[in-house]
Design a protein that fits this description.
The protein is α/β, with parallel strands linked by helices and 329 residues long. It has three domains: 75 residues; 146 residues, Ribosomal protein L4/L1 (Ribosomal Protein L4, Chain: A), CATH 3.40.1370.10; 51 residues, no CATH class. It is built from eleven helices and six strands.
């Protein structure tokens, strides 16, 4: 550039002065401050982030190392338990075993004792009869014969004897007539052929009304043979079962001069026992007649006592004579 051109160029500062004044008025002067403020935190942020980034992996490393310590702690009890198991003396092993053996031996003994023990009942117990007076109050207990009142029950034996007793009561007198016994003519009813009807030879045929009966009932016996020893054993089983449940009573003060259903009913009601009741007598007709009109009671002689009667009754009431005869039999 020539000297003339340089002279003619305006002064840059002079030209910029009015522009700065206008910028101040318009609020553009704050721009450089904003740039400085933005630049300052930009320089500070990376400085602050660097230590944070370095510290984070350190903390993570320490946290990861913590489980290792825990693992070592968990492993420590296992080692200690293994060492303790190997280092246990023989005396410690014998100490816990002794009470276990004693308990295993004592428990079966207690259970067996409970099974053999007689059941707890309000009246008497196994092998014992309760003695009551005329008002039904308990006075004492009497021992029963073990041969008759302490026999274990066998269901098959009881079923056989009861079935035989029931079958023996059947009369077996039902009878029907065969075609040979029916009254009627033996003449042929009509000719053999040519009528279109079925051939018929006799009016007494089972196929016709008024004729004989085919395979009808005939008089016979339903008795079942049972050995006498089995019958006695079944009766002892039934009596033993009632004695085991405490349902055998002896009426000591019961005296009936004349048959009276009211007196017997009052006595049994005051006694307060389970029904039905079987009253066993020994040649005492007044007592037997006093019982026969009671719906919940039944009477039987000692000599005619059956297994079915004993099993059908829930309670047994023996007179003084019957108790002596039955207990000493």
């Amino acid at each position: 550039m020539s000297a003339d051109e340089i002279k003619n160029t305006p002064d840059v500062e002079a030209v910029a002065a009015p522009e700065k004044d206008a910028a101040k008025a318009a609020g553009e002067v704050k721009k450089p401050a904003a740039k400085k403020a933005a630049a300052k935190p930009a320089t500070k942020k990376p400085v602050a982030k660097k230590p944070a980034a370095k510290a984070a992996p350190k903390k993570a490393a320490t946290k990861k190392a913590a489980p290792k310590k825990a693992a070592t702690k968990k492993a420590a009890p296992k080692k200690a338990a293994a060492e303790a198991a190997t280092s246990k003396p023989s005396t410690k092993k014998a100490a816990p075993v002794k009470p276990i053996k004693r308990a295993s031996v004592e428990r079966p003994a207690k259970l067996k004792a409970d099974k053999k023990a007689p059941p707890e009942t309000r009246h008497g117990g196994f092998g014992v009869a309760t003695v009551v007076d005329a008002s039904g109050k308990e006075l004492e207990t009497r021992d029963l014969s073990k041969d008759l009142f302490a026999v274990p029950a066998n269901v098959n034996t009881l079923h056989l004897v009861v079935r035989a007793e029931q079958a023996a009561r059947r009369r077996g007198s039902a009878s029907s007539k065969t075609r040979g016994e029916v009254r009627g003519s033996t003449a042929k009813l009509y000719r053999q052929k040519g009528t279109g009807r079925a051939r018929a030879g006799s009016a007494k045929s089972p196929l016709r009304t008024g004729g004989g009966v085919t395979f009808g009932p005939r008089p016979r016996s339903f008795d079942i043979k049972v050995n006498r020893k089995v019958v006695r054993q079944a009766l002892a089983m039934a009596l033993s079962n009632r004695a085991e449940n405490g349902n055998v009573f002896v009426a000591a003060g019961l005296k009936i001069d004349a048959p009276s259903t009211a007196i017997m009913d009052e006595f049994l009601v005051n006694l307060d026992i389970a029904a039905p009741v079987l009253v066993v007598t020994n040649d005492e007709p007044t007592v037997t007649k006093s019982v026969r009109n009671l719906r919940y009671a039944e009477a039987s002689e000692v000599g005619a006592l059956s297994t079915e009667q004993v099993l059908r009754a829930r309670s047994l009431v023996l007179t003084e004579k019957a108790f002596v005869a039955l207990n000493e039999a």
